[in-house]
Amino acid sequence: MGPSPVGQFLDPILKRPVRWEEKDVFNPAVVVRQGKVYMLYRAENNIDTFGKASRIGLASSTDGVHFVREEEPVLYPANDAQKQYEWPGGTEDPRVVEDAAGTYYMTYTAYDGKLARLHVATSPDLRHWTKYGSVFGGQYLDKWSKSGSIVSRYEADGRIVATKIKGKYWMYWGDTQLWLATSDDLIHWTPLAMAPGEKPPVPLRAQARTLPHLKVVLPTRAGRFDSDLVEPGPPAMLTDQGIRLIYNSRNVPAIGDKSLPEGTYTAAQALFDKDDPSRLLQRTDTYFMRPDKPYEQTGQVNQVVFLEGLARFKFTWFLYYGTADSKIAVATRPVE
After folding, report:
1. DSSP codes, 137-188
2. What is the mean pLDDT of residues 81-107?
3. How far is it, in rounded angstroms, from Cα 222 to Cα 219?
4. What's 163's domain CATH number?
5. pLDDT tens-digit profile of 135-176?
6. How far apart are CA 14 and CA 16, in angstroms?
7. Number of domains in the chain
8. CB 89 within 8 A of CB 111
């Protein structure tokens, strides 16, 4: 799926019509509901006098490949309590799960143009969303945070259901190293701190240095494809063998894999203990997906595959991802 000039809505802040997905579409979440795959995806308008913003659109498919889009976005900056955090940058990079009662929970990035904050919203139907603001708040409100992957069961009927472990919900998050957080209600989250005397597994850089006391559960690796950045992919999958996490990573050849171009995003997997989500059991030695198609190698940001949506649908796994921050693609494999 690529950008489209067709979608248009009356922006509540600008008070004028905006072709909100005309420039790029990328980084989708997916939900199986009532026999269809629903995709919630990030979209950007063309840069004009008022700049550009990200908004989240909705599309549906009966086969997992061909999607019909809704004309207007379903979650976007507005004149509400979250405007100060979402404008002018926008609402970005959704990931969606549901609870046992069927309410949907979206974690997304609110970007004010300078600082990214991990936010949460809920919906009964994927179209009407209630925003709750920062998942952390308090001392973390003005710290950089994004990319929340909530530990969930992938049910045979396609639902992705958030599941408690030892009485708590768990979420992997972050975009420099990976951290953990816990919650009682899927809305208010508490980051996991290091134990007394514990030290980070790698030297912390950039935004990671603003959170020095938090426990790093998946660090970057020198000399590897994931040397510069690691970031959660789709909702983490709780299985009998452990918690399977698909993660995205960025490479810098000077400190990482010299065979990959500068800034290449690839995807890999990690396995955590199902009884202790902070305990890393295994991690793949190399990536399983890298940019090798023209639309993955060239775009708004070159050399990017960024995985965010995974669906079990019609006996097939559908893995949806953003390509070069410009388009949306899918890879499939049969359910075993």
Report:
1. -GGGTTS-----EE-EEE-TTS-EEE--BTTBEEEEE-SSSBEEEEESSSSS
2. 98
3. 10
4. 2.115.10.20
5. 998 999 999 999 999 999 999 999 999 999 999 999 999 998
6. 5
7. 1
8. yes
